[in-house]
């Protein structure tokens, strides 16, 4: 049984995949890592690296979850070799059409400065555009679903041999290796009896 790790995923290789991973164990007993507007604000700041001007609203939270549902719908079907649902494509395209964040030039004239006037909606548009880029570029061939039991996290496998199995070694890989080691030792002990 997977643990309900409430920490945010940041090792998927794409912002849109990190956002999808905020809904844990989708294949089993799903659990929500974004239970309120404060969680959404924390995710936007820590994972997306975008502190929004004012805390996300309840409407923005609903919108964020709507985007996530559409993203999951699209990637699940694409990964299975199926055509995505038209409704999911429509939702994704609506978010992608939101205006991108304005670039801010720093006082030196040679550096970028953080845009401190962002809304959560603006960042959701960034996430949608990242997903569209992923779904339509060569990186999609490197998308994998974590092999750990109970984990439903997609990630981009940038490993040299292209054989990465887990969304994160520290989250799922080490646990799987520990279970396999324990099972082998248990079988050895039984065979000695």
Written account of the structure:
The protein has one domain (15-192): Orthogonal Bundle (Jann2411-like fold). The protein is 47% helix and 7% strand. The chain has six helices and six strands, in the order αββαααββαββα. It has helices at 15-20, 37-46, 58-79, 86-96, 120-136, 169-192; strands at 23-24, 31-32, 104-105, 112-113, 143-145, 154-156. The strands form three sheets. Strands 1-2 form a two-stranded antiparallel sheet. It has a two-stranded antiparallel sheet with strand order 3-4. A two-stranded antiparallel sheet has the order 5-6. β5 (143-145) and β6 (154-156) form a beta hairpin. The longest helix has 24 residues, at 169-192. The protein is globular and about 70 Å long.
Summarize the structure.
By secondary structure, this protein is mainly alpha-helical. Helices cover 47% and strands 7% of the residues.
What are the SSEs and their pairings?
Layout: H1 15-20, E1 23-24, E2 31-32, H2 37-46, H3 58-79, H4 86-96, E3 104-105, E4 112-113, H5 120-136, E5 143-145, E6 154-156, H6 169-192
Antiparallel strand pairs: 1-2, 3-4, 5-6
Helix pairs in contact: 3-4, 3-5, 4-5
């Amino acid at each position: 049984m997977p643990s309900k790790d409430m920490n945010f995923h940041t090792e998927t290789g794409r912002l849109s995949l990190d956002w999808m991973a905020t809904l844990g164990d989708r294949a089993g007993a799903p659990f929500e890592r974004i239970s309120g507007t404060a969680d959404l604000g924390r995710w936007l700041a820590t994972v997306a690296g975008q502190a929004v001007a004012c805390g996300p609203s309840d409407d923005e939270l609903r919108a964020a979850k709507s985007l996530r549902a559409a993203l999951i719908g699209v990637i699940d079907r694409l990964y299975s070799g199926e055509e995505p649902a038209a409704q999911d494509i429509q939702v994704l395209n609506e978010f992608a059409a939101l205006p991108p964040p304005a670039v801010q030039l720093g006082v030196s004239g040679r550096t970028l400065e953080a845009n401190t006037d962002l809304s959560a909606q603006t960042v959701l548009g960034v996430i949608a555009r990242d997903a569209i880029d992923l779904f339509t570029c060569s990186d999609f061939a490197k998308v994998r679903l974590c092999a750990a039991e109970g984990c439903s996290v997609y990630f981009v496998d940038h490993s040299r041999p292209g054989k990465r199995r887990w969304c994160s070694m520290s989250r799922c890989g080490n646990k799987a290796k520990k279970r396999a080691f324990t099972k082998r030792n248990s079988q050895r002990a039984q065979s000695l009896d």
